[in-house]
Specification:
The protein has 354 residues and is α/β, with parallel strands linked by helices. It has a single domain, classed as TIM Barrel, CATH 3.20.20.210. The protein contains 15 helices and 10 strands. Helix 11 links the parallel strand 7 and strand 8. Helix 6 packs across helix 7, helix 7 packs across helix 8 and helix 14 runs parallel beside helix 15. The chain starts with 5 loop residues before the first helix and ends with a helix.
Length: 354
């Protein structure tokens, strides 16, 4: 088979067709980025290892609203705010941070409507997307457009326990939170799709190690119709766009639902929680898989030979006929040995050719 461009390789694989070889990617924590730079003398892992995807996204405002009224007790020194007012503050352990919730004390829909919700619609925030996408396509890359979350953004604003209580006892409150976020995500999804992104990158961590965080019925009531709207917004604008859904953990109970509402790609497929080969057998005709290399087991605690064997097994059992992009199932944490990272990408190049 002829050598494909990076974009051709990713799009072919994610359309569940067979490319020339398995595409790959990874994310690094700051500690791993430092290891990478020390070992290679390079700054960009994507360029050094030949990752095939690049990303586009909305511009962030230069200034955020004053969120201090929503934190009457103040915030820790060094707190950084998201556009939704969620605060992150240093915890002194690598890159990990504490989290603050601006709507933790909100009680009514009126309280929610008084909150300074972000606005993604101003032209300056997204007018660059078409040009950025075209430039990356011209360079041969597959382009992923970041959309973000619904569930995660909602509980991070309100606090998870508070939101879950509202989902049971205060339908109007929970609906108001979810709908503000869904309005934003549907607009973002449409714009990145219009711009020509190959992959619409969405996700919500709804999985624990052995089950969902909520009942499947609750997920279907609250999140499924909202994600359906987001994906429809993207695919109405660009029917060729592939919809990517991320959730850590075990999400087997809603995989059929994800497919039904238009998702094409499941990430990260944690092998500690779900059997990637079994998922391939059951859903491989309707779903592509992105990830599959465990960051709870193989990458931090395996030997380089075990990493190579895991890659070989994954290509053989999940990559047959296409439908696989190999990646660690999350960013690589500080305890991952550099030798295992080298072994991962060497093995993809060795075993990943069709």
């Amino acid at each position: 088979m002829r050598e494909m461009s990076p974009r051709e390789r990713v799009v072919t694989a994610m359309r569940r067709e067979q490319p020339d070889r398995v595409p790959k990617t990874a994310g690094f924590t700051p500690a791993i980025q430092e290891k990478f730079e020390q070992a290679t003398g390079h700054k960009s892992a994507a360029e050094y290892f030949g990752f095939e995807t690049r990303g586009i996204g909305f511009k962030r405002p230069d200034e955020l609203p004053d969120f201090s009224p929503w934190y009457p007790d103040g915030v820790p020194e060094g707190t950084i705010f998201s556009e939704y007012g969620t605060g992150r503050y240093p915890c002194g352990f690598y890159h990990f941070t504490g989290r603050l919730h601006p709507l933790e004390r909100a009680e009514t829909v009126a309280d929610l409507e008084a909150f300074p919700w972000p606005d993604y619609t101003p032209t300056w925030r997204h007018e660059h997307l078409e040009e950025s996408c075209a430039q990356l396509h011209e360079a041969g890359w597959a382009v992923s457009g970041s959309v973000g979350h619904i569930w995660e953004s909602a509980w991070q604003i309100t606090r998870m326990e508070k939101l879950m209580e509202a989902m049971v006892f205060d339908h109007d409150f929970a609906s108001c939170v979810f709908d503000h976020i869904t309005d934003n995500q549907a607009f973002v999804a449409r714009r990145v799709a219009e711009a020509g992104a190959d992959i619409i990158h969405c996700g919500d961590d709804i999985g624990m190690q052995d089950r969902l965080m909520m009942s499947p019925a609750m997920w279907r009531e609250w999140l499924k119709p909202r994600w359906r709207r987001v994906i429809k917004s993207a695919k109405d604008a660009n029917p060729d766009a592939l919809a990517f859904y991320h959730s850590d953990g075990d999400v087997r109970e809603v995989i059929e639902d994800l497919i039904e509402i238009g998702f094409d790609i499941l990430n990260p497929v944690q092998p500690e929680c779900m059997d990637p080969a079994a998922l391939k057998r059951e859903y491989g005709d309707r779903l592509a898989f992105w990830g599959c290399i465990g960051t709870q087991t193989t990458m931090p605690f395996g030997t380089p030979d075990e990493v190579r064997e895991t890659v070989r097994w994954t290509v053989e059992n999940v990559g047959q006929g296409g439908g696989l992009l190999i990646a660690p199932t999350h960013v690589l944490e500080p305890e991952v040995p550099w030798e295992n990272i080298e072994a991962l990408f060497e093995a993809v190049d060795t075993y990943g050719r069709y």
